[in-house]
Amino acid sequence: MNKRIRVGAVSYLNTLPLVHGIRQSGLMDRIILQEDYPSKIAAALVADEIDLGLVPVAVIPSLKTPYVITDYCIGTLGEVASVAIFSDVPMEEIRSIMLDYQSQTSVNLAKILVTEYWNQPVIWEEAGEGFIDQIRGSRAAVVIGDRALELRSKKPYIYDLGIGWKEYTELPFVFAAWVANKELDPDFVDAFNRATGYGVKHLDEVLKTINYEQYDVRHYFTNNISYELTEEKKKGLDMFLEKMFKPKAI
User: Fold this and answer.
1) How many other C-beta atoms can be found within 10 angstroms of the C-beta atom of residue 172?
2) Which residues of the chain have pLDDT under 50?
3) How many whole angstroms separate alpha carbon 211 and alpha carbon 101?
């Protein structure tokens, strides 16, 4: 009997179209599926606790042999809505920014944009659970995922990182992609690619499974999130990884 492939997926609203097709396919008999927040899935892939994951792209350089295996991702062409810096004051008055513990890609993106695009000197703070309640005064925070969507109506200043990246680079952005830490069977990869694309192509079917009142989910899936891993998105991904690891001036 062939060993089941261990697959990790992010348990956020924006991943539902990608995971829906997997659950509807015959692949469930060939995989072990686990879901968690992005940084945990990334850590599991690096530790070889899973074989394949929908992971923050910032983890790719940490893998000895990364394989991006599908035509789909969690990306954006501009406003992403669910990844932002939230603040009580405008950017020029922010003195410190807490970094969402659930994220890797987004916190690195925030550092690039705040430093290079908004040119704002800040103190970076590692954040734990409950950090959202500590956003006050000149202390802002990077918040991602469903919690960010729910916070949009509560904070006066929202710096969308998808918009910031597009304005800065004129390129789209990839937050997460399906990445394997080893070469997988080509037949499985083909079937997995088709399965992940199913929900993207059948959004009405996916929307029937969702009860979410804090944000317009149809708008989110069709205007904020862009699921196809295009050549332009790959250019944006390459530029992000280059900026993430370039030497910083002393």
Assistant:
1) 23
2) 1, 247-250
3) 26
User: Is the entire prediction scored with pTM above 0.85?
Assistant: yes
Torsion angle, alpha carbons of 186, 8, 74, 219, to 10: 120
Q: Are residues 95 and 154 in the same domain?
A: yes
Paired tokens of 189: 């990869």
The pLDDT score that the predictor gives to residue 80 is 98
Which of 151, 159, 152 lies closest to 133, judged by CA?
151
Q: Are residues 70 and 181 in the same domain?
A: yes
- Which pLDDT does position 2 carry in this prediction? 65
Q: Tell me the residue range of the domain where 221 lies.
A: 5-75+173-235
Q: Which residues pair with 85 in a beta bridge?
A: 142, 159
Q: Are residues 110 and 32 in the same domain?
A: no
Determine the pLDDT at residue 37.
87
